[in-house]
Amino acid sequence: MTASALEPRAGRRCQSAVNALHSALYFAPEYDDELAALGLDRGSMAYFAGRAAPLGAVGAGVVTATFYNFSHALVSRMVPAAWAIASPAAVLDARLRAADATLTRLLGPDVIASPELAEAAALALRATEACGREARPLYAANADLAVPERPHLVLFHAATLLREHRGDGHLAALAAAGLDGLEAIVSHCATGKGFTPRFFRLSRGWSAEQWSAAQDRLRERGLLDGSGELTPDGTALRREIEDITDRLDRAPYEHLGAAGVERLTALAGGFTQTVLAGGGFPLEHFGKG
């Protein structure tokens, strides 16, 4: 199957299916337990440390820049204080232990040992061969890490690479659209496809007043209406952002080929359904709220 046979949104569907096998980690008790055992605070500090650790002992400015939609005030309370408690290397080891425990719990030992999971891991890792480091700091930092040996951890590693590769490109699209970090999540919330406004505000460190001010800025641009819903221009801008993100993230899936993308989407989608059925995500925090 040639690269030209790849459907325009096939890469997005594939990455979405694979992504859950990375992002479920941040909601897992095993993650907080492992990082708390190092002395880190549960919640925001553990999250920032675990996701930023591949970058090294960076300061708050780097984390705010690469994470994009978190309040710098929140980031500054967690980083670099985290590195005085646990080194990035120790955090990365804990993150991998947490991934091992989380995926084993959510998928079950039979799935972990299955040939289908090993196949998905090999396909996802092959896709990452075409990811580019240029202007993609979080992807590049994770790409410098060693590939684990066990298939379910290979799949976690590849899912991390594919997630951060797409994410870095998405941030470029948001910046090009003239959306700051808070405006980006306010407009995303208005689509109804992400977290609730309350969860976003609390987890990203924004006050109700800051949220309201961002809504006002978006209204001034004609992107939100008086009730906080996207206007036609707002809907068009969010669609354009996603289209640019898809284009910037196309290479790994072209490299894998249409047949490989279809197979990986099916395999990872099945695993994701198992994760969802096992309570891997707090579904009450999704939607418009």
What can you see in these coordinates?
There is one protein chain. With 289 residues, the chain is mostly helical. The protein is built from 17 helices and no strands. Helix 1 crosses helix 11 and helix 11 crosses helix 15. The longest helix has 26 residues. It is globular, with a radius of gyration of 19 Å. 43% of the residues are buried.
How would you describe this structure in keywords?
mainly alpha
What's the total count of β strands? 0
Helix-strand string: HHHHHHHHHHHHHHHHH
Percentage of residues in strands? under 5%
Number of helices: 17
Poorly predicted regions: none
Largest sheet: none
Q: Radius of gyration, Cα only, in angstroms?
A: 19 Å
Helix and strand composition category:
mainly alpha
How far apart the termini lie comes to 43 Å
Helix content: 55-70%
> What general form does the structure show?
globular
Average pLDDT metric: 95
Care to give the gist of this entry?
By secondary structure, the protein is mainly α.
Ordered list of secondary-structure elements with their pairings:
Layout: H1 10-23, H2 29-36, H3 44-52, H4 60-67, H5 72-78, H6 81-85, H7 88-107, H8 109-112, H9 115-128, H10 137-143, H11 151-176, H12 181-189, H13 197-204, H14 208-220, H15 232-248, H16 251-256, H17 258-277
